[in-house]
Design goal:
The protein is an alpha+beta fold and about 475 residues long. The chain folds into 3 domains: about 10-110, Beta-Lactamase; about 140-295, Alpha-Beta Plaits; about 305-475, Hypothetical protein af1432 (Orthogonal Bundle). It is built from 19 helices and 9 strands. It has helices at about 35-40, 50-55, 65-70, 110-120, 125-135, 150-160, 180-185, 190-205, 230-245, 270-305, 310-325, 330-345, 355, 365-370, 375-385, 390-395, 420-430, 445-455, 460-475, and strands spanning about 10-15, 25-30, 75-85, 90-95, 100-110, 170-175, 210-215, 220-225, 255-260. Helix 7 runs antiparallel to helix 15 (about 375-385) and helix 17 packs across helix 18 (about 445-455). The longest helix is centred in the middle third of the chain and has 38 residues, at about 270-305. The radius of gyration is 29 Å and the shape is globular. The termini are far apart.
Length: about 475
């Protein structure tokens, strides 16, 4: 079959927003020249119509229902669709651009599908069938990032191999731990590298006849025909070992696996998938939490190497906090939050360029705007481990000021959490009495005078008074 086919076509939509700027619908604005020949509809009758109206009035002739209920600007998808009214099977590629246009390309693969079906009916051997099908359709059923098969191909093979001849039939589901944390800390480029690393390790640890697919953002599935539970366990252990031995740059990649095996013809294949998924999520509850904590502790240690945010700095903050927490009648929870904030407040700086963090002169306006992002980055990182370190919102707010002039500028005065108001004084005091790359340290007396001068503007005035008195008492004793 040659491409392009005379049955290929495209349709183009423009996003529509309401007066509040909220996305509402799509309107058809253009079609390819052969649209009328394929669909039997004059494009002029549809131009200007909303996608919701077209889908209802024309039934599902364009296969729009598959993404209609989740459509948003920026959509990028690819899926296979049989359009009954046309009696043809298509690969539908959906693209969006920054002008809020949505384009759907329909690539006809009807002949390809019929050829594959004929091969199956002819009882071609499993391996020959797989490679013949891959040769003809691989470019349509491959995940563009990892090169593995995509969800559509996995589902196709699952149905095809669900026969007594392939028993025992096993499936393995894997889920990458902490992908969002990696994206937040190092950017999506590193997240993509992590996904590629996972794909590479799983593929290398699998056998030639296994079907390895990426079925979601961070989810992978392996289909293993003629494979019993014992063999599956060995393959999964081989993968786990490979992950430990092959870190990504300086990151240890962790993935949780769950597996299940069908041994009798009567077993429901969908229940098999659900069982593998449940087992995977059960392990992920524990392994995912451990992986995130390991990642966060690693980020903190790495940050110590590239900035002045050293362990000594964290320890000094904690020591000062312990001196004043009793004077402020903090609850046990507030004390714990204050200690965690002392330790993890600047974790988001891991996402700031090293040349900015290590600059010895004052930052220019553009660099300062970049630096201010560390609160938000830290919030996103710690939010991923809220069950263990529940201070994500405190990290987001730790540069707020009493008069509202801080950042991100969400709160002022007593709207700012008490723990944050305390920490901001402790952090400023420690910064003033210790050398930094861009300024010399002050005396303790001068630092206390500075806090007193900024009480009511940068700092909570009442807490400032308690802090100053406490530090003076400590120096006198």
């Amino acid at each position: 079959m040659e491409y392009p086919s005379r049955f290929d076509f495209f349709i183009q939509f423009k996003a529509v927003f309401n007066h509040q700027g909220k996305f509402n619908d799509y309107v058809l604005v253009n079609t390819s020249e052969n649209f009328r020949t394929v669909a039997g509809i004059k494009s002029e009758t549809l131009i200007g119509e909303k996608i919701s109206k077209i889908m209802v009035e024309r039934k599902d002739i364009f296969g729009l229902q598959d993404f209609y209920y989740n459509m948003i600007p920026g959509t990028r998808r690819k899926y296979e669709k049989y359009i009954e009214e046309l009696d043809r099977t298509y690969i539908v590629n959906i693209f969006s651009d920054d002008r809020d246009y949505l384009i759907l390309f329909y690539t006809d693969i009807t002949s390809l599908k019929k050829s594959a079906e004929k091969q199956r009916k002819d009882s071609q051997s499993y391996e020959d069938n797989l490679y013949a099908f891959e040769e003809k359709s691989g470019k349509y059923f491959k995940d563009s990032l990892t090169g593995l098969y995509d969800k559509a191909f996995f589902e196709e093979e699952l149905l095809r191999l669900d026969t007594i001849r392939q028993l025992p039939l096993s499936v393995v589901m894997g889920d990458l731990n902490g992908l969002k944390l990696i994206n937040d800390a190092f950017g999506h480029e590193m997240g993509d590298k992590a996904l590629k690393k996972v794909a590479e390790i799983i593929k290398d640890a699998s056998r030639k006849e296994d079907i390895v697919s990426r079925v979601g953002g961070d989810e992978f599935m392996i289909l293993l025909p003629n494979t019993n539970e014992e063999t599956v366990t060995k393959i999964v252990e081989r993968m786990k070992t490979a992950f430990k031995q092959n870190p990504l740059d300086f990151i240890n990649v962790s993935i949780s696996f769950g597996s299940a095996t069908k041994t009798t013809e009567e077993e429901d294949i969908n229940r098999l998938l659900k069982l593998a998924e449940n087992r995977m999520y059960f392990l992920k509850l524990k392994e995912g939490k451990e992986a995130k904590l390991e990642m966060i502790n690693y980020l903190k240690k790495r940050l110590e190497k590239i900035t002045f945010e050293t362990k000594a700095h964290y320890d000094r903050l904690k020591a000062i906090a312990m001196k004043i927490e009793e004077k402020l009648n903090l609850t046990d929870i507030e004390k714990e939050e204050l200690m965690l904030l002392c330790e993890f407040h600047d974790i988001g700086k891991i996402g700031i360029p090293a040349e900015i963090l290590q600059k010895t002169e004052s930052l220019n306006q553009e660099e300062w705007e970049d630096m201010k992002r560390h609160s938000e980055i830290g919030y996103n990182i710690i939010k991923e481990s809220r069950e263990s370190i529940a201070i994500d919102e405190l990290i987001l707010l730790h540069h707020e000021k009493w008069d509202g002039s801080g950042y991100p500028g969400l709160f002022k005065e007593e709207e700012i959490p008490k723990v944050v108001r305390i920490f901001s004084i402790i952090d400023a005091y420690d910064a003033m009495i210790n050398d930094r790359p861009f300024k010399k340290k002050m005396t303790e007396a001068a630092a206390l005078n500075e806090i007193e001068a900024k009480a009511g503007s940068q700092f909570d005035p009442n807490i400032s008074t308690i802090f100053i008195n406490t530090m003076k008492e400590t120096r006198a004793s």
